Every structure is written in C-alpha cells, then in structure tokens.
Amino acid sequence: MTSELCFYKKSKKMEIIDIIVSPKHENRGNGNVLLRAIDKICKIEEAVKCYGMLSYQDKEHWDKLFHFYEENGYIITLKEGSLNGSIVKEYSL
Fold first, then answer.
1. Which of 47, 57, 64, 65 has its CA 20 to 30 A from that of 83?
2. What's the N-to-C CA distance of the chain in angstroms?
3. What does the angle CA 91 – CA 92 – CA 93 come to, to the nearest 5 degrees?
4. DSSP assignment letter at 6
5. 62-92, pLDDT tens digit by residue?
6. For residues 3 and 16, is the Cβ–Cβ distance under 8 A?
7. Which run of H or E residues covers position 71?
8. How far does CA 25 lie from the centroid of its chain?
9. What is the pTM of this model?
10. What does R_g of the chain's alpha carbons equal in angstroms?
C-alpha cells in the first residue's frame, strides 16, 4: 500500500498523485486508512483542497473507485468528451 502526494503550500492544496494497494490487499479498508491519513495531513497543513485525477487506465475499476472516493467525501467529475476525470475534497478552516 503506497501513496504519492504533493502539497502546494502557497495555495494550500494537496494533490494525490497516486494511491496503490496491491490486489491481495484490496477490499480490506487499506485505501480508506490512506485517505484518512491524507485528511489528517491536510488538517495539519491547513489545506483548503485535496484533489487528484482519474485515469482512463483505471477505467475497468471506475465503479470501485467512484464508490471509494465518494465514501470518503470526494466529488467526482468526468470530463465531457474525455476518458479522464478528477476527484476533489474541499476543507473548511
């Protein structure tokens, strides 16, 4: 289970570059643990937004990804005419 993040201090935004959970560890809550840890980092850093991209490469798992991110408070947007999308969670300070 790994994740890559970038925090942009000037704009107080956290970007999720990637979250990887090996197939043998899927559906055990590990991704939820990572997103809760990201929430804590965002709170400590006083981030106003956490965002990331959904890639066409993950299209076969979009149903799981949509549920996963929505369950954790993210809003999912698919770009019209494109096979990519984005996730966003906003925080109030």
1. 47
2. 29
3. 115
4. E
5. 888 899 999 999 999 987 777 788 999 999 8
6. yes
7. helix 62-71
8. 18
9. 0.84
10. 13
